[in-house]
């Protein structure tokens, strides 16, 4: 079984405002039975990765969860080097996570990687309070072609 996960295409959102942030495209391609959709593409920001790591840690018991790249206490303009280092760190984090069988069993991870649901929507879905099951949410996103549209847009 092979799973390729790439963190790419960092984009600064709300540039120049006090609430600017960077989000990253996460492209996943796999033939693993663990995943509902074999290909997906979503955009996530750093604080969503922080949430994911915290959830994985809560549910993984004694299994160590990989570290995230450090949080910068002050974000100076467009530090391309900082953004690139963080992108690499996020990619290494996800590569390690998808190789771990225990972490792979967490449905929050699957919704994080294979749907564009917000964090509160992921929580509701996992707790059975959403309008869809985890599988339905992932399939709905996959069928909507949202992931492919994002993938196509970024091709030169």
UniProtKB/TrEMBL annotation:
Keywords (A to Z) from UniProt: Cytoplasm, Endosome, Lipid-binding, Membrane, Protein transport, Transport
GO annotation terms (biological process): intracellular protein transport; vesicle organization
Subcellular location: Cytoplasm; Endomembrane system; Endosome
Signal peptide region: none
Domain PX: 2-119
Membrane topology: Peripheral membrane protein
Listed GO MF terms: phosphatidylinositol phosphate binding
Pfam families linked: PX
Keyword Cytoplasm attributed: yes
InterPro entries noted in UniProt: PX_dom, PX_dom_sf, SNX10/11
GO cellular component: endosome
Entry keyword Nucleotide-binding: no
Family: Belongs to the sorting nexin family.
PANTHER family from the UniProt entry: PX DOMAIN-CONTAINING PROTEIN, SORTING NEXIN-11
Protein's recorded name: SNX11 protein
Source organism per UniProt: Ciconia maguari
């Amino acid at each position: 079984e092979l799973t390729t996960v790439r963190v790419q295409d960092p984009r600064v959102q709300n540039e120049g405002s006090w609430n600017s942030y960077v989000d990253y495209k996460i492209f996943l391609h796999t033939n693993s039975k663990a995943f509902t959709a074999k290909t997906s593409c979503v955009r996530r920001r750093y604080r969503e990765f922080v949430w994911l790591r915290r959830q994985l840690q809560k549910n993984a018991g004694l299994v160590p969860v990989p570290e995230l790249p450090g949080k910068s206490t002050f974000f100076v303009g467009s530090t391309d080097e900082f953004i690139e280092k963080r992108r690499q760190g996020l990619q290494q984090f996800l590569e390690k996570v998808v190789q771990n069988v225990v972490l792979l069993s967490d449905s929050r991870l699957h919704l994080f990687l294979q749907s564009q649901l917000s964090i509160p929507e992921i929580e509701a879905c996992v707790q059975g309070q959403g309008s869809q099951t985890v599988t339905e949410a992932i399939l709905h996103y996959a069928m909507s072609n949202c992931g492919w549209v994002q993938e196509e847009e970024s091709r030169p």
